[in-house]
Amino acid sequence: MKKIARIVFSMKFALALLGILLAACLAGSVIPQGKEASYYLSEYSEQAGGAILALGLDDVFHCAWFVLLAVVLCLNLTGCNIVHFPSLLERSRNGFSPERYKRSGRAKELSVSGSPEELFESCGFHRLVRGTGGDGKEYIYGVKNRAGIWGAWLCHLGMLIVILGFGLGQMKQVSFAVYGVPGQTKTVEGTGYELTIDDFAVDLRPDDTVEQYTASITMRDTATGESRSGQTSVNHPATLFGMRCYQNSTGWAATVQVWKEDRMIQEEVLCAGEYMNVEDKEGLAVMFAAFYPDYAEGEDGMPGTASSKLQNPAYLYRLYYRNEILGMNVLGAKEAITVDAYTIIFTDSQNYTLIQIKRDPFTWLAAIGAAIVMTGLFFAFYLRTAEVYAERKEDGSWSVSGYSRKGGPEFEDQLKQSQA
């Protein structure tokens, strides 16, 4: 059991687990998450799509093996910290003294000249202890950066808190979707906030493929009236009122007008897939089913688009009356639907943006963990614990040595350079 415990609570095992989890996180950021199985089989090769589904890479952060590895890593980090805490505490309290240093036999004697006290102070040892050892020899001893021994321990603690914050956040995270066109204000249901889409742009490459989607948004607290604005694009979310706003996807929208006897009685912006009820005619509804920016009929007679450029717009609609379909067809840019005294027109096609809004109540915990990790790294790399010792010889000269647990040769070079 002791051998197993040493393996499970070892640093090598922790690094192996962390490497696998980081690779999984990378896969989760590259592969779109939460899509239907058909999406992966169509977007990737049959073998790659099958592997993604089999390994759970379509929902990495919730799949069983990822959760299990995260739990094992938490146990490893907890065990490491529990096992090493007593010895570190004892070392920080009683682990530094001239007697312990001399008995350790770890230091390499250096050839120096001049006053060892001045040498030590020039290397940052400002609290020096002078005394006489049991053998009657005079010594000078110094230690600096005692806190450095806690660097690795703090890194382990920080990583544990980051994982806990991330895991709890995934379990308690809530998500909202808001979509629309520039100028529209939508309620973020269940939050007490409203989201206004100020602007939306699609950046194209020279070959007309999409390079980036960018939305300028404003969120308003309906209770206080406070507003905050930001810009969100793919892989660059905006944070407003503690919520992350992601540019998720886009599609086409159109303005649908209803006319009666040469008078417009209703106008709404519909995104593809939405419908509207005609207010003046109970039971009559029209659905904006699909949009073709450059309409072209396929060989099979089905509607399609020749390109993504807005050159020959056409709208696929469905018309319903009392939940029964009246008709379905494709309208050109200047065509209209006529039902009794009503005329329905599709116009002003434009891109809409879908903003995914996520609120994670444990972001603060992950942030604390990250701060502790950074503190641990600072302690480990910039507060290197070091000791120096000088003992007077019988001829009156001094025998000088120094030791640093990390960067020993570098520390010895520093001592030698300081006396130059």
Protein structure class: alpha+beta
Mean pLDDT over the residues: 87
Radius of gyration: 34 Å
Assembly type of the shown chains? single chain
| Tally of DSSP helical segments | 10
Which stretches of 5+ consecutive residues score pLDDT under 50? Answer: none
Largest sheet features = 6 strands, antiparallel
Which secondary structure elements does this structure contain, and how are they paired or packed?
Elements: H1 2-8, H2 11-30, H3 37-43, H4 46-54, H5 64-94, H6 98-104, E1 108-110, H7 116-122, E2 128-132, E3 138-144, H8 151-172, E4 174-180, E5 185-188, E6 193-204, E7 210-221, E8 227-233, E9 238-240, E10 243-260, E11 263-271, E12 275-277, E13 284-292, E14 295-297, E15 303-305, E16 314-321, E17 324-332, E18 336-339, E19 342-359, H9 363-382, E20 386-392, E21 398-404, H10 408-418
Antiparallel strand pairs: 1-21, 2-3, 3-20, 4-19, 5-6, 6-7, 7-8, 9-10, 10-11, 10-19, 12-13, 13-16, 14-15, 16-17, 18-19, 20-21
Helix pairs in contact: 2-5, 3-4, 5-8, 8-9
Give an overview in words.
With 420 residues, this protein is of the alpha+beta class. It folds into 3 domains: 2-77; 95-145 and 384-418; 174-359, no CATH class. Helices cover 34% and strands 38% of the residues. It has helices at 2-8, 11-30, 37-43, 46-54, 64-94, 98-104, 116-122, 151-172, 363-382, 408-418; strands spanning 108-110, 128-132, 138-144, 174-180, 185-188, 193-204, 210-221, 227-233, 238-240, 243-260, 263-271, 275-277, 284-292, 295-297, 303-305, 314-321, 324-332, 336-339, 342-359, 386-392, 398-404. The strands form 5 sheets. Strands 4, 9, 10, 11, 18 and 19 form a 6-stranded antiparallel sheet that branches. A 5-stranded antiparallel sheet has the order 1-21-20-3-2, with helices on both faces. A 4-stranded antiparallel sheet has the order 5-6-7-8, with no helix packed on it. The radius of gyration is 34 Å and the shape is elongated.
